[in-house]
Specification:
This protein has 464 residues and is of the alpha/beta class. The chain has three domains: 78 residues; 190 residues, no CATH class; 185 residues, Rossmann fold (3-Layer(aba) Sandwich). The chain has a six-stranded parallel β-sheet with strand order 3-2-1-4-5-6. Strand 4, helix 17 and strand 5 form a beta-alpha-beta unit. 46% of the residues are buried.
């Protein structure tokens, strides 16, 4: 058996491990095993590629491995759970940047060698540069919005779509130039630069509420860029892994768009406005209607509750309240109550954000109920506790056709017998609109940091 045959066989095994690993990630019970299998597949692919010796040098690769490992270890230790969405956005961007640089280096190497690149090589190269650069710069903007380094609102200006169209046509025009004249390597970097501008322009009009969808889409872009780079390098493993990432990202994006009752085109080209509500509209909803409660009053309600549903939101992540929430759930269950967690698909700032937080606190997955499963049961719920969620429980999505979240499926917590909302203030969510739930007759608000509030409830319950 030739070395090339051995390499491709190893790549096939690695691809199978990737697919089995992805399937395992569909359920928490199999997620760890899925991660391990996918990691083994990647290790196999890397080792086989190094054995092929069609590389720069082992010394350079070792240096890159050391630097990258140190950088990754520091991020893993220092980045808090609240920073995971930003970290994911950056990692997507790094994947796109790697594709741009590798494809560009391969083009320069081929031209310097004096050979004429094949047509498929040229097309794959410009695809890597185009998609990868859009991914990198779009991810930087997403990171900036999530980290609140730049305006988190939707940034729009007159003629935005025509400008985007002109920039896209310019990128396409220079891409055709590179395909027709591969020796003009400088034009490749112009393509990457224009595509970077396009990535920025496509991301700035997207408000914070749509960030989970954007992160998922950018993840898909990074996979497509990697797959294109696989064609440039003639590396089957890179093609397969990139295609898997691209396809899974698109599927996840579609699922999230469906959960928001919006099309991908609406997210990308419409954006969810997050213009702050006027003081008049806020006063009309809240004035004289908001009922604040103490931990002791809420504890008395929980003492007699037979069914309690906890609704986590980004505020839970900010306060790092997941472990306290688990303790509260265990205490309620010890007193005979049934406790479940209602998970909205776009709660938080990245896909699966609440699932990750609660899994970190060892909350049993069986207690996490998705929106379709939990919504019919809210009418039979004694107390719903909303911790830091806002737009995903806002009844305006059902009642106000002019609302920026109109038509978005929400968690029907307002149908519970009593709703307890834990918030530091009445500030709006990403959509920038007030929430009538906070002023409803069956709602009590406990103004406090999420973690402190939950710990206060635990203490008050123990004292009853």
């Amino acid at each position: 058996m030739t070395l090339n045959a051995v390499i491709n066989l190893a790549y096939l095994v690695a691809a199978i491990l990737f697919i089995v690993g992805l399937k395992g990630l569909s359920h928490p019970r199999k997620a760890v095993r899925g991660n391990i299998l996918a990691s083994i597949g990647m290790l196999l692919a890397v080792v086989v590629t190094l054995l092929d010796r069609n590389i720069v040098s082992y010394q350079l690769i070792l240096a890159g491995l050391v630097v990258g490992s140190l950088f990754g270890a520091v991020l893993a230790v220092r980045v808090p759970m609240t920073g995971m969405p930003q970290m994911v956005a950056l990692l997507n961007g790094f994947g796109g940047a790697a594709s741009v640089l590798v494809a560009g280096a391969a083009l320069i190497e081929t031209v310097i060698a004096g050979s004429t690149p094949a047509v498929d090589f040229r097309i794959a190269t410009v695809a890597s540069g185009l998609i990868g650069s859009v991914t990198f710069f779009g991810s930087l903007v997403a990171f900036g919005k999530l980290q609140e380094l730049v305006n988190t609102n939707a940034v729009v200006f007159p003629g935005q779509h025509p400008v985007n169209g002109v920039v896209a046509l310019a990128a396409l025009g220079f891409s055709i130039w590179v395909v027709m004249n591969p020796e003009s390597t400088g034009a490749y970097w112009i393509v990457a630069g224009i595509a970077g501008l396009l990535g920025i322009l496509l991301t700035i009009p997207i408000g914070g509420a749509d960030m989970p969808v954007v992160i998922s889409l950018l993840n898909s872009y990074s996979g497509l860029a990697a797959a294109a780079t696989g064609f440039v390098l003639r590396n089957n493993m890179l093609i397969i892994s990139g295609a898997l990432v691209g396809a899974s990202g698109i599927i996840l994006t579609e699922i999230m768009c469906r959960a928001m009752n919006r099309s991908l085109a609406n997210v990308l080209f419409g954006g969810l406005s997050s213009t702050p509500a006027s003081k008049a509209s806020v006063d009309a909803i809240y004035s004289g209607k908001v009922k604040a409660a103490s931990a002791e009053e809420i504890a008395m309600l929980l003492e007699t509750a037979r069914r309690v549903v906890i609704v986590p939101g980004y505020g839970l992540a900010v306060s790092q309240a997941q472990h306290a929430v688990r303790s509260l759930a265990q205490l309620l269950e010890s007193r005979g109550a049934t406790v479940e967690f209602a998970i909205h698909p776009v709660a938080g700032r990245m896909p699966g954000h609440m699932n990750v937080l609660l899994a970190e606190a060892d909350v049993p997955y069986e207690k996490l109920k998705d929106m379709d499963e939990i919504n019919p049961t809210f009418a039979q719920t004694d107390v719903s506790i909303v911790i830091g969620a806002n737009d995903v429980v806002n009844p305006l999505a059902r009642t106000d056709p002019k609302s920026p979240i109109a038509g978005m499926p929400i968690l029907d917590v307002d149908k519970s017998r009593t709703v307890v909302v834990i918030k530091r203030s009445l500030s709006p969510g990403f959509a920038g609109i007030p929430n009538p739930l906070f002023a409803a007759d069956n709602t009590l608000i406990y103004f406090a940091d999420g973690k402190k509030a939950v710990n206060d409830l635990i203490q008050a319950l123990k004292e009853l």
